[in-house]
Amino acid sequence: MQDYRSLRVWQDSRNLALEIYRLTSEFPPDERFGLVTQMRRAAVSVSSNLAEGCSRSGRRDFARFLEMALGSVYELEVQLDLAVTLDMASDDRSALDRCDKLKRSIIRLINTVHSEKDGKDPAPKTNRT
User: Is the separation of the CB atoms in 65 and 109 below 8 Å?
Assistant: First the structure.
């Protein structure tokens, strides 16, 4: 078992979720149950899946949760693009760039987990992405 808080990728995902909450707080009120909810759920899902994966006893299970986290980042990226297109969010690329960085980090971590022999330690060493 690994302390998820020590993973840089989890820290980055948490920061992205905080940015999404701030960003969506400025969306129109009629989006409260639409895009706002979807974006917040996707953003929270990334760090939640990373944390849950760290609680697993095998690398294969950990990798499965990493893949779910990656899917949530892709989902969030599509929603951000839609928000920018609909002029609900500025096109400053900050959140989209964070998504891109997070995707690359999670993919590297998935590749690392898949390349290591299956064992009891579900996560790589601290500060690995």
Answer: no
